[in-house]
Amino acid sequence: MSLELIQGDLTKMKVDAIVNAANSSLSGGGGVDGAIHRAAGPELLAACRKLGGCPVGQARLTAGFQLPSRYVIHTVGPRWQGGTAGEAALLRACYQNSLQLAYSQNCSSVAFPLISSGAYGYPVQDAIAMAIDAIRTFWRESEMQVYLVLFDQETYALAVCYLKTTGAGELR
């Protein structure tokens, strides 16, 4: 498995699956969740309603509909509560369960946003470290190409710094 950091728009990624940082009802919302729902079209919301939601840390699969990706993997990250409510384990589970679901669907490429770092308030540097570590742990079991797609320049710069320090992947 290889990991690449990309600054850009997750909804434009031509990969087998993109990961949606969703809410537990899978009903669309703000941030990356809203962007994915808008880009995929109304069929995505209809498919999500059939799933009946998703618990925090788990992952669910739908088609990509009007997105360039074949699938959308929906995962619900934890809300930051100061770091004492099991947030780290739940965030790690988001990445692991999403990767496992992608693997089970024979995906050769998957693109992630930085889960929980926006409205859910997870500290960005901690979220970067968790994302890269969780993806790197899964590396050993798969040949999958994984992208961490970061929307803004500041977050991308922090991730680049972390990646250079740890030597965990490539930049693009």
Task: Explain the overall architecture.
The protein is an alpha/beta fold. The chain has one domain (3-166): 3-Layer(aba) Sandwich (Leucine Aminopeptidase, subunit E, domain 1). It has helices spanning 31-40, 42-51, 87-104, 124-139, 153-166, and strands at 2-7, 17-21, 59-63, 71-75, 109-112, 145-150, 170-171. The chain has a seven-stranded mixed beta sheet with strand order 3-4-2-5-6-1-7, sandwiched between helices. Strand 5, helix 4 (124-139) and strand 6 form a beta-alpha-beta unit. Helix 3 crosses helix 4 and helix 4 packs across helix 5 (153-166). The chain starts with a strand and ends with a strand. The mean pLDDT is 94.
Q: Which consecutive residue ranges, at least 5 long each, have pLDDT under 50?
A: none
Sheet-strand content, in percent, reads: 15-25%
CATH architecture: 3-Layer(aba) Sandwich
Tally of distinct domains? 1
Helix content, binned percent? 25-40%
Q: What would you call the structural class?
A: alpha/beta
Strand order of the largest sheet: 3-4-2-5-6-1-7
Order of helices and strands: EEHHEEHEHEHE
CATH class: Alpha Beta
Mean pLDDT: 94
Distance from first to last alpha carbon: 16 Å
Radius of gyration: 14 Å
Question: What are the key terms here?
Answer:
172 residues; alpha/beta; Leucine Aminopeptidase, subunit E, domain 1; 7-stranded mixed beta sheet; 7 strands
Summarize, please:
With 172 residues, this protein is an alpha/beta fold. Helices cover 40% and strands 19% of the residues. The two termini are 16 Å apart.
SSE layout and pairings?
Blueprint: E1 2-7, E2 17-21, H1 31-40, H2 42-51, E3 59-63, E4 71-75, H3 87-104, E5 109-112, H4 124-139, E6 145-150, H5 153-166, E7 170-171
Parallel strand pairs: 1-6, 1-7, 2-4, 2-5, 5-6
Antiparallel strand pairs: 3-4
